[in-house]
């Protein structure tokens, strides 16, 4: 898969970049698969399980949540494993190859769940497929996200690398946010075959993009494992004593709980509360994909001017205002209003993703300079675990809230418009995201690692 990126889309931040544009683009291609995988599961899985597979919403939300408990073990193990391998080649790339295959396969399995007669059989099948998804995502993403910290020691070059990554995430927004809803709208959002085609097509794209990242990073700069690698419990203690990392982890946890809740409630809110069809998501996905691309260089420039943490706070403030505005949503919501919210959220997403990952690589390199030990895998393992575990809370919260509100999975979603269901969905799409966004801003205000600290 080849994607041509405008040379001016992410302007070089230093006169002679340490990382070639070819490697940046190749590595960043993996984000296309990661984002399609994560966003599609976050956006579609609960709705698919409840409205198509006819699984009780409480059971569906709990099932998604429980599969993430496995990450408590898998993420640090994979991170530690990729840190400790001794090789004259990259420690990380073999994981990318295996993770690519498992990730694509899991996506296909989830969205081609057989319609067994028993609800429990359907739930059991999805559980196994979700476990494969969890394992494949971990094997690919933990080493993948560790690689930029090895590629360069330059403070602003890291923002540039993740700027390229954001380009592919924007493309993923088009695929997951526009193409998938278009297929579902055309073939029937409650039809099993619609999700079959989404699963097959998405699985192929996910695998291909991740394989491009594996292939393209063969000549990327990498680091070697230390001669004496500390024991895993020593590593865990060290990581959790890093105040910069713990604060960043808290920020991400808050934000992602809100984002996951909003994603899980999104389709239900559109159909039940706004009383609109999925064509709204198609138009919104197109706008988000395009606008996100435009915001990438803007976010990078803003961060150079005011700093990474302040740029991150600005993005979070925009997010809080937009999600809080969903409380004003009513049946018959105009298309322009829905798209405007989506466009504003694109800026927040760009700032969130680029700044968070750039700050993470700063933390990793700052720690390596202080201790002489490279811990990219361990740090990214806990970062990745935070991403996946918090994303599991979204379907759990929304599933339980819908169950308590009396949601009947055997009825078409748009037929259930009670005040209780509206409040259950507002909990997921507005109340929790806004509260978590404000808490993340509070945590960000205390982030102290600056560029000058990395020069010491």
Automatic annotation (TrEMBL):
The keyword Kinase does not apply. Keywords: Membrane, Transmembrane, Transmembrane helix. The keyword Disulfide bond does not apply. The chain crosses the membrane at residues 25-49, 95-116, 122-145, 166-184, 196-214, 253-274, 280-300, 312-329, 335-360, 381-404, 424-447. It comes from the Bacteria. Residues 19-448 form the Major facilitator superfamily (MFS) profile domain. Belongs to the sodium:galactoside symporter (TC 2.A.2) family. This is MFS transporter.
């Amino acid at each position: 898969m080849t994607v041509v990126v405008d040379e001016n889309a992410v302007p070089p931040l230093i006169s002679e970049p340490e990382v070639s544009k070819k490697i940046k683009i190749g590595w960043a291609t993996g984000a296309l698969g990661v984002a399609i995988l994560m966003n599609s599961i976050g956006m579609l899985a609960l709705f698919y399980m409840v409205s198509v597979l006819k699984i009780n919403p409480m059971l569906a939300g709990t099932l998604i949540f429980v599969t993430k408990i496995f990450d408590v073990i898998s993420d640090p193990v994979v991170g530690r494993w990729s840190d400790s391998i001794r090789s004259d080649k990259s420690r990380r790339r073999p994981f990318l190859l295996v993770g690519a295959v498992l990730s694509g396969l899991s996506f296909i399995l989830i969205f081609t769940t057989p319609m067994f007669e028993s609800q429990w059989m359907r739930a059991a099948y999805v559980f196994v497929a979700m476990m494969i998804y969890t394992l494949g995502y971990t094997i690919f993403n933990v080493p993948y996200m560790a690689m930029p910290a090895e590629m360069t020691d330059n403070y602003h070059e890291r923002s540039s690398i993740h700027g390229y990554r954001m380009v592919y995430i924007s493309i993923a927004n088009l695929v997951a946010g526009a193409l998938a809803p278009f297929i579902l709208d055309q073939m029937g959002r409650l039809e099993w075959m619609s999700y079959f085609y989404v699963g097959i097509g998405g699985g192929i794209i996910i695998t291909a993009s991740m394989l491009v990242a594996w292939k393209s990073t063969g000549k990327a700069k990498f680091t070697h494992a230390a001669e004496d690698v500390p024991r895993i419990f020593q590593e865990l203690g060290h990581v959790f004593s890093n105040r910069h990392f713990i604060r960043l982890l808290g920020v991400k946890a808050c934000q992602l709980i809100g984002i996951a809740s909003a994603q899980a409630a999104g389709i239900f809110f559109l159909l039940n509360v706004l009383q609109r069809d999925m064509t709204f998501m198609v138009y919104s996905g197109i706008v988000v994909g395009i606008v996100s691309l435009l915001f990438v260089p803007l976010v990078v420039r803003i961060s150079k001017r005011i700093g990474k943490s302040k740029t991150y706070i600005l993005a979070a403030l925009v997010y809080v205002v937009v999600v809080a505005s969903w409380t004003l949503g009513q049946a018959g919501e105009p298309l322009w209003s829905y798209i405007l919210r989506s466009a504003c959220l694109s800026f927040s997403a760009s700032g969130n993703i680029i700044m968070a990952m750039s700050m993470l690589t700063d933390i990793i390199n700052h720690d390596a300079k202080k201790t002489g030990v490279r811990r990219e895998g361990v740090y990214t393992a806990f970062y990745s675990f935070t991403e996946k575990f918090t994303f599991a809370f979204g379907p759990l919260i929304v599933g339980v809230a819908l169950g308590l509100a009396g949601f009947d999975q055997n009825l078409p979603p748009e037929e259930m418009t009670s005040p209780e269901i509206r409040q259950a969905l507002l909990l997921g799409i507005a109340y929790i995201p806004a509260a978590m966004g404000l808490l993340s801003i509070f945590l960000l205000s205390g982030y102290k690692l600056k560029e000058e600290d990395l020069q010491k």
